[in-house]
């Protein structure tokens, strides 16, 4: 169509003497006005201070068409440059608030911590946690406090962790021996698989005292690694049922259906293990019993917050899915960063040889004497937090944060990936520089809001002490036992 015909068509449409044209113009104008006021309504709170700034949303779908769940943290970081560290995002019918600075993180996780103490339970999370009955997704309150207390007292206290050191030592030694045999035979080794097996066996032995060896150990580990990976993959997929709750019952993407299949397999395993443990209750002293025996024994002791066997299984699910997967990811990222930087590996080996010696083996008691290795671990989690947006929070009531209204039940993202790379708080933020942690007292406990790899406030990860011991002891043993080099001729990128 040429310019003449185009102008003719436009002239016809704008011809107000034509009744049809007048109707078209009226409808178009009405739609424009509706869209304008819909967007304006989404951008302002009904009473009080305005909503935070944010990108312009489309009607109904909001900002969803422009977001990629695989790189959400980097997209949020880019949008923050324009809209600021407290930003709103429309995810379908769900309003999300993105926090991207230490000050804003402090406001949410400390100043208003009780209001923001709940987590935003996704549809698939309802399946793999038995309806959100676990410590991760339970609403803040009596039930959640009891779950956390039980876990901390039996699994994560310093005396408990010291008592279970022999388990960590045995599993780590077994991994080193296996890798030595494979290296002697010139056979390839899947490092991620071996790290997973070691950490998985430690966690499960602490939970229910069971372990497997030899080929069965490898077979079971591979099966469970695949299962955990599949569940994690489903959790990472953008589920539109979370953004349009009225469609959740239809499960259009089939994610809930897939999750049920995987969870059923884990559930059968838990049933088998629990059946044998129920029969053993009372046959061991309190000092000798494992975590599962402890839970079964004390589940009915608190009349105000009794535990069902479903609650017990939900805690086991937390340990298997959360405790194993995050520790493995942290270990793999640390090894990848170290192997890709010969100068870093050299410094670690020098420190290990000086503290441990060349004729001895690493013990957990050596870890506090390895400041450079600890700095490497902290720098790894700065650049590669296992949960770049943490677990999304949800506020239990409408709040005012930094002069902006945050409506009740908003989905709250804490973009620790962006906070950890903020040039206002970090020198050369995108560079791997472990030395920066030798010059400060930053730790994993969330006291300084520019460094939050495990979160902060009431919902901070309960297993920090265990995760730190697991990961550091694993990588220290591997780095002390073997010489590591990146494959020749291959570009080694850590993503």
Structural description of this entry:
The protein is mainly alpha-helical and 495 residues long. Helices cover 53% and strands 5% of the residues. Strand 1 (86-91) and strand 2 (94-99) form a beta hairpin. Helix 8 (165-184) runs antiparallel to helix 9 (191-208), helix 9 (191-208) runs antiparallel to helix 14 and helix 14 (309-339) runs parallel beside helix 18 (464-481). The longest helix is centred in the middle third of the chain and has 31 residues, at 309-339. The model is unreliable at 1-16 (pLDDT under 50). Belongs to the cytochrome P450 family. One of its GO terms (molecular function) is monooxygenase activity.
Q: Which key terms come to mind for this protein?
A:
53% helix; 7 strands; 2 domains; five-stranded mixed β-sheet; Cytochrome p450; 495 residues; two-stranded antiparallel ribbon; mainly alpha
Low-confidence stretches: 1-16
Strand count, sense and barrel status of the largest sheet are: 5 strands, mixed
Work out the strand percent.
5-15%
Strand order of the largest sheet: 1-2-7-4-3
Please give the count of helices.
18
Terminal residue distance: 49 Å
Classified in CATH, the superfamily of the largest domain is: Cytochrome P450
How many structural domains? 2
Describe this structure in a few short sentences.
Belongs to the cytochrome P450 family. The protein has two domains: 3-43; 64-481, Cytochrome p450.
Helices and strands in order, then pairings?
Blueprint lengths: L2 H11 L5 H25 L28 H12 L2 E6 L2 E6 L2 H10 L6 E2 L3 H6 L13 H15 L1 H6 L1 H20 L6 H18 L5 H23 L3 H4 L11 H26 L10 H8 L10 H31 L2 H14 L15 H13 L9 E2 L4 E3 L2 E3 L4 E4 L1 H4 L44 H18 L14
Parallel strand pairs: 2-7
Antiparallel strand pairs: 1-2, 3-4, 4-7, 5-6
